[in-house]
Amino acid sequence: MFIFRKAIWLLLILLLILPGCWSRKELNELAVVAALGVDTHKSGFLVTAQVINSSEIGKQRSSVGATPVVTYQAVGITIPDALQRVLSQAPRQLYLSHLRVLVLGEALARSGISDVLDYVSRSPDLRTDFFMLVAQHSKARDVLNVLTSFEPIPANSLFSSILVSHKNWAATGMVTLQQYITELERAGSNPILSGVRVIGSQAVGYSSSNLKKINPDAQLQHAGIAVFKKDKLVGWLEESKSKTVNYILNEVSTTIGYVPCPGSENEVVGIEIFNSDTKMDVKLDQRGIPQFTAYIHVEANLNAVQCAIDLSKSKNIDYIQNQLKEKLEVVIGNNIRDVQTKYGADIFGFGEVLHREYPKVWAKYRNNWDTHFKTMSVQIKAFVAVRHIGSIIQPVRREIHQR
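The structure assignment produced for this chain is given below.
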């Protein structure tokens, strides 16, 4: 009995000292922010918050024609100041812990995003797993005001499309806050971000009528990779150069390409690359100058044959492999040199390789690495293996011509 009473008293004491749900917030008291946009403004920052309209989520049809999200905008000297001013419009407290994407206006990105990084890194309400994007040639608010048809919440549409396009296309970036800051602080590399743009009529895209068309008047489209020097945007990479970045960074899961058929420039063999692995190495020449080499190992399948090539002959498979090998070496090599000369931004991480292999040599270059990187020698060595040619051996065109 004594032990039982002692246990009761212990439980009562624990109830007194253990914290309760004193800081809880009910869902009907919160405005869940799915996306946040930040633009530069003469008075500081223009902040756009894309808030989920919880009363409309799950409805097949709205009785009043309300949209699934609502955007609020406010200007402030700092980002927290702007968010506080949003409360003069929003009926609920903003809840940022479920943020999916952070969109930065291009003008802001070119002037520097250190203030934005300071806020999002410092705020206890924000996690670090949301994706960061740059609005190509536009403001972040223009992107966040467009309604998407396939996914009712535009922020979720952006988040999902980044995952899909990065995995299957390899021409976009997939960068979270934590990844960006890691690259920013790491010696010998510069960060990148994925781009997004509005195609079509922005004005119509802001209206719910955009959701009622088979071919919407406005859509959101990923727009290659944004190149940064430290915290400032310096330029954009189109599809080919974006793929080059992902090849070097080992970010290619699946992508598509092609090589010319033997003896023909107009007929091609389609290639599906399903595995890619890149190793980077650096050696010092006789003068002690770094010489970089990227070894790219690729596995591929044939997915389209638009000529009458005989695939039963090993020499033709060897031809396809050699053509793909040469194309990878030439295109990736040229793209790296273009980035070197045009931007001088080491977004590939070659400086980090030098730092790891030859720390004393790196000490001579680190203070002016962007300048030295422009003239560094980078060689590409590709190794290609075609694994499958499809469920039929000969191309249909060959069989038709033989009849």
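Interim note for the steering committee: The chain has a mean pLDDT of 88. The first strand starts at residue 30 and ends at 41.
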